[in-house]
Amino acid sequence: MLALDGGRIETYRSTGRLMVRIPIGLQATRCDTSGNAGYCFAGQPDLCISESEIISKNPLGSAGGRVNISERLPYGKVSALPVAEIVSVSLVFVEDISDEEIGLEGFPSWTQYAFEWNRNHKKMPWDLNPLCWLISIKAL
């Protein structure tokens, strides 16, 4: 389930689309073993995990799949919204976000996005540029 609040719920309701970044890990570097591009993570520099394997492990599912959407309400309550379709899943570093993507994630500016990122992902702060799943969804 994907719980939305603030600008994200407004963006989703007004456009029927949303992009979401979910952090995977810190200090990821590109690697290529035997023609298989992937990523190595700190602490395991000799282990190259393929992009397709990392993408397949995202918590929301694969492209073409469905994801339950809810709106976060005050006092820890949620309200279910119609199911959405996962349009695409890719891998990106958080700092590679564009102005357009910031808007599609429901934020008005880089500053607000970075602030919220650091508030929500204390162990994977913006400045360390974690590798993320970039998941694009659309309302059905």
What's the N-to-C terminus distance?
Answer: 15 Å
**Low-confidence stretches at least 5 residues in length (pLDDT < 50)?**
none
Elements, N to C (H/E): EHEEEEHEEHHE
Instruction: From the alpha carbons, calculate the radius of gyration and give it in angstroms.
Output: 16 Å
Whole-number count of domains: 1
> Strand pairing plus helix content: what structural class?
alpha+beta
Secondary structure: helix percent: 10-25%
Count of individual beta strands: 8
- Major sheet summary line: 5 strands, mixed
Q: What is the subunit arrangement here?
A: single chain
Count of DSSP H/I helices: 4
CATH C-level class is: Alpha Beta
CATH architectural group: Roll
Largest beta sheet: strand ordering: 1-6-7-8-2
Overall morphology: globular
| Overall mean pLDDT | 90
Q: Approximately what portion of the residues adopt beta-strand conformation?
A: 35-45%
Which fold name corresponds to the CATH topology?
Sulfate adenylyltransferase
